[in-house]
Amino acid sequence: MLFVCTANISRSPYAERRARQVLPPDAGAGITFASAGTPGYPGRGMDPAMAELLVARGGDASGHVSRAVDEEILRRVDLVVVFEFAHHMRLLDSFPRHRHVILGLQQAARAVRALGASRAEDAAASDAFDRVERLVSVAGQNSMSYDVEDPYGRGARAAQACADEIDQLLDVVLPFLAGREVPRLAAPPLAVPTEGTRALRPAWRLGRSAPRRALP
Protein backbone atom coordinates (compact mmCIF):
# COMPACT_ATOMS: atom_id res chain seq x y z
CA MET A 1 0.00 0.00 0.00
CA LEU A 2 1.64 3.21 -1.20
CA PHE A 3 0.62 6.59 0.19
CA VAL A 4 1.25 9.49 -2.21
CA CYS A 5 1.15 13.22 -1.52
CA THR A 6 2.92 16.15 -3.17
CA ALA A 7 6.44 16.21 -1.70
CA ASN A 8 6.43 13.03 0.42
CA ILE A 9 7.33 15.02 3.53
CA SER A 10 4.01 15.64 5.33
CA ARG A 11 0.84 13.67 4.66
CA SER A 12 2.14 10.50 3.03
CA PRO A 13 4.96 9.72 5.49
CA TYR A 14 2.65 10.51 8.41
CA ALA A 15 0.05 8.04 7.07
CA GLU A 16 2.71 5.43 6.30
CA ARG A 17 4.19 5.53 9.80
CA ARG A 18 0.77 5.62 11.50
CA ALA A 19 -0.40 2.62 9.49
CA ARG A 20 2.73 0.74 10.53
CA GLN A 21 1.90 1.42 14.16
CA VAL A 22 -1.25 -0.68 14.01
CA LEU A 23 -0.16 -3.13 11.30
CA PRO A 24 3.60 -3.67 11.62
CA PRO A 25 5.30 -6.11 9.22
CA ASP A 26 5.04 -8.93 11.77
CA ALA A 27 1.29 -8.44 12.33
CA GLY A 28 0.41 -11.19 9.86
CA ALA A 29 -2.05 -9.05 7.90
CA GLY A 30 -0.19 -9.43 4.61
CA ILE A 31 0.08 -5.66 4.17
CA THR A 32 3.15 -3.44 4.01
CA PHE A 33 3.20 0.33 3.74
CA ALA A 34 5.34 2.83 1.85
CA SER A 35 5.10 6.41 0.64
CA ALA A 36 6.25 8.68 -2.19
CA GLY A 37 5.47 12.05 -3.75
CA THR A 38 4.16 13.42 -7.01
CA PRO A 39 5.97 15.29 -8.37
CA GLY A 40 8.05 14.71 -5.24
CA TYR A 41 11.07 16.45 -3.76
CA PRO A 42 13.58 13.65 -3.16
CA GLY A 43 16.09 13.56 -0.36
CA ARG A 44 14.23 15.48 2.34
CA GLY A 45 13.27 14.50 5.87
CA MET A 46 9.77 14.63 7.27
CA ASP A 47 8.13 18.01 7.87
CA PRO A 48 8.86 18.96 11.51
CA ALA A 49 5.26 19.84 12.35
CA MET A 50 3.90 16.48 11.19
CA ALA A 51 6.89 14.61 12.61
CA GLU A 52 6.24 16.15 16.02
CA LEU A 53 2.62 15.01 15.94
CA LEU A 54 3.63 11.55 14.77
CA VAL A 55 6.06 11.12 17.67
CA ALA A 56 3.55 12.53 20.16
CA ARG A 57 1.09 9.86 19.02
CA GLY A 58 3.54 7.02 19.48
CA GLY A 59 5.02 6.83 16.00
CA ASP A 60 8.59 6.98 14.72
CA ALA A 61 9.59 9.79 12.36
CA SER A 62 13.25 8.84 12.11
CA GLY A 63 14.91 7.72 8.91
CA HIS A 64 12.38 9.08 6.43
CA VAL A 65 13.84 10.27 3.12
CA SER A 66 11.40 11.66 0.57
CA ARG A 67 11.23 10.22 -2.94
CA ALA A 68 9.23 10.66 -6.14
CA VAL A 69 6.82 8.11 -7.57
CA ASP A 70 8.16 6.20 -10.54
CA GLU A 71 7.28 3.15 -12.59
CA GLU A 72 9.54 0.87 -10.57
CA ILE A 73 7.78 1.78 -7.32
CA LEU A 74 4.31 1.38 -8.79
CA ARG A 75 5.15 -1.99 -10.25
CA ARG A 76 5.63 -3.32 -6.72
CA VAL A 77 2.42 -2.04 -5.09
CA ASP A 78 -1.17 -3.27 -5.12
CA LEU A 79 -2.92 -0.13 -3.89
CA VAL A 80 -2.00 3.55 -4.25
CA VAL A 81 -3.71 5.96 -1.87
CA VAL A 82 -3.54 9.69 -2.64
CA PHE A 83 -4.57 12.72 -0.60
CA GLU A 84 -5.74 15.12 -3.31
CA PHE A 85 -7.65 14.81 -6.56
CA ALA A 86 -4.69 16.57 -8.21
CA HIS A 87 -2.41 13.72 -7.15
CA HIS A 88 -4.87 11.24 -8.63
CA MET A 89 -4.97 13.06 -11.97
CA ARG A 90 -1.18 13.47 -12.10
CA LEU A 91 -0.67 9.75 -11.57
CA LEU A 92 -3.28 8.88 -14.18
CA ASP A 93 -1.51 11.12 -16.70
CA SER A 94 1.96 9.79 -15.94
CA PHE A 95 1.17 6.13 -15.21
CA PRO A 96 -2.14 5.23 -16.92
CA ARG A 97 -1.49 1.50 -16.75
CA HIS A 98 -1.85 1.67 -12.95
CA ARG A 99 -5.16 3.57 -12.95
CA HIS A 100 -7.08 0.59 -11.53
CA VAL A 101 -5.16 0.64 -8.23
CA ILE A 102 -5.30 4.38 -7.42
CA LEU A 103 -7.78 5.70 -4.86
CA GLY A 104 -8.08 8.81 -2.73
CA LEU A 105 -7.92 8.21 1.03
CA GLN A 106 -11.34 9.76 1.52
CA GLN A 107 -12.62 7.86 -1.52
CA ALA A 108 -11.40 4.59 -0.03
CA ALA A 109 -13.01 5.31 3.34
CA ARG A 110 -16.32 6.09 1.65
CA ALA A 111 -16.10 2.80 -0.25
CA VAL A 112 -15.60 0.85 2.99
CA ARG A 113 -18.58 2.61 4.55
CA ALA A 114 -20.66 1.86 1.45
CA LEU A 115 -20.01 -1.84 1.89
CA GLY A 116 -21.89 -1.58 5.16
CA ALA A 117 -22.82 -4.80 6.95
CA SER A 118 -21.29 -6.97 4.24
CA ARG A 119 -17.74 -5.75 4.84
CA ALA A 120 -17.05 -7.98 7.85
CA GLU A 121 -18.18 -11.05 5.93
CA ASP A 122 -16.13 -10.02 2.89
CA ALA A 123 -13.04 -9.39 5.02
CA ALA A 124 -13.26 -12.67 6.90
CA ALA A 125 -13.68 -14.72 3.74
CA SER A 126 -10.83 -13.27 1.68
CA ASP A 127 -7.16 -12.37 1.74
CA ALA A 128 -5.61 -8.91 1.49
CA PHE A 129 -5.43 -9.02 -2.32
CA ASP A 130 -9.13 -9.87 -2.59
CA ARG A 131 -10.01 -7.08 -0.17
CA VAL A 132 -8.07 -4.54 -2.23
CA GLU A 133 -9.88 -5.66 -5.38
CA ARG A 134 -13.21 -5.44 -3.57
CA LEU A 135 -12.41 -1.94 -2.32
CA VAL A 136 -11.40 -0.68 -5.76
CA SER A 137 -14.44 -2.26 -7.41
CA VAL A 138 -16.97 -0.45 -5.21
CA ALA A 139 -15.20 2.91 -4.97
CA GLY A 140 -17.09 5.79 -6.51
CA GLN A 141 -15.55 8.69 -8.36
CA ASN A 142 -12.83 10.71 -6.67
CA SER A 143 -13.32 14.44 -6.27
CA MET A 144 -11.58 17.61 -5.09
CA SER A 145 -14.16 17.72 -2.31
CA TYR A 146 -12.46 14.65 -0.82
CA ASP A 147 -9.03 16.30 -0.55
CA VAL A 148 -7.06 16.05 2.67
CA GLU A 149 -5.54 19.52 2.74
CA ASP A 150 -1.79 20.01 2.70
CA PRO A 151 -0.63 21.36 6.08
CA TYR A 152 2.90 22.21 4.97
CA GLY A 153 3.97 25.67 6.10
CA ARG A 154 0.54 26.50 7.53
CA GLY A 155 1.31 26.16 11.24
CA ALA A 156 0.61 23.78 14.09
CA ARG A 157 -3.18 24.05 13.91
CA ALA A 158 -3.29 23.01 10.25
CA ALA A 159 -0.88 20.16 10.93
CA GLN A 160 -3.03 18.85 13.78
CA ALA A 161 -6.22 19.06 11.72
CA CYS A 162 -4.54 17.14 8.91
CA ALA A 163 -3.15 14.48 11.25
CA ASP A 164 -6.54 14.07 12.93
CA GLU A 165 -8.28 13.62 9.58
CA ILE A 166 -5.74 11.05 8.39
CA ASP A 167 -6.09 9.08 11.63
CA GLN A 168 -9.87 9.05 11.34
CA LEU A 169 -9.78 7.84 7.73
CA LEU A 170 -7.17 5.17 8.45
CA ASP A 171 -9.42 3.90 11.25
CA VAL A 172 -11.99 3.14 8.56
CA VAL A 173 -9.75 1.71 5.85
CA LEU A 174 -7.15 -0.34 7.73
CA PRO A 175 -9.52 -2.75 9.55
CA PHE A 176 -11.15 -3.61 6.25
CA LEU A 177 -7.85 -4.24 4.49
CA ALA A 178 -6.54 -6.26 7.45
CA GLY A 179 -9.72 -8.32 7.69
CA ARG A 180 -9.96 -7.76 11.41
CA GLU A 181 -10.18 -5.11 14.09
CA VAL A 182 -7.01 -3.11 14.66
CA PRO A 183 -6.08 -0.56 17.34
CA ARG A 184 -7.68 2.80 16.74
CA LEU A 185 -5.49 5.76 15.81
CA ALA A 186 -7.91 8.63 16.29
CA ALA A 187 -8.46 9.98 19.78
CA PRO A 188 -11.96 9.24 21.12
CA PRO A 189 -14.33 12.21 20.95
CA LEU A 190 -14.69 14.28 24.08
CA ALA A 191 -17.74 13.39 26.15
CA VAL A 192 -20.49 15.97 25.92
CA PRO A 193 -21.71 16.92 29.42
CA THR A 194 -25.38 16.37 30.11
CA GLU A 195 -27.61 19.33 30.83
CA GLY A 196 -27.48 18.69 34.55
CA THR A 197 -23.70 18.49 34.70
CA ARG A 198 -22.65 21.02 32.08
CA ALA A 199 -19.85 23.17 33.35
CA LEU A 200 -20.19 26.90 32.98
CA ARG A 201 -17.56 28.44 30.72
CA PRO A 202 -16.24 31.96 31.15
CA ALA A 203 -18.11 34.43 28.97
CA TRP A 204 -14.95 35.32 27.07
CA ARG A 205 -14.67 31.74 25.80
CA LEU A 206 -18.05 32.15 24.14
CA GLY A 207 -16.76 34.87 21.86
CA ARG A 208 -16.57 37.88 24.15
CA SER A 209 -13.35 39.64 24.94
CA ALA A 210 -11.26 38.22 27.76
CA PRO A 211 -11.42 40.37 30.89
CA ARG A 212 -8.42 42.62 31.40
CA ARG A 213 -6.43 42.09 34.53
CA ALA A 214 -6.45 44.95 37.00
CA LEU A 215 -3.23 46.86 37.27
CA PRO A 216 -1.43 46.45 40.60
UniProtKB/TrEMBL annotation:
Protein name, entry field: Low molecular weight phosphatase family protein
Residue ranges annotated for the Phosphotyrosine protein phosphatase I domain, each copy included: 2-172
Entries under Gene3D superfamilies matching the protein: 3.40.50.2300
PANTHER family: LOW MOLECULAR WEIGHT PROTEIN TYROSINE PHOSPHATASE, LOW MOLECULAR WEIGHT PROTEIN-TYROSINE-PHOSPHATASE ETP-RELATED
InterPro entries attached to this UniProt entry: LMW_PTPase, Ptyr_pPase, Ptyr_pPase_sf
GO molecular function, one term: protein tyrosine phosphatase activity
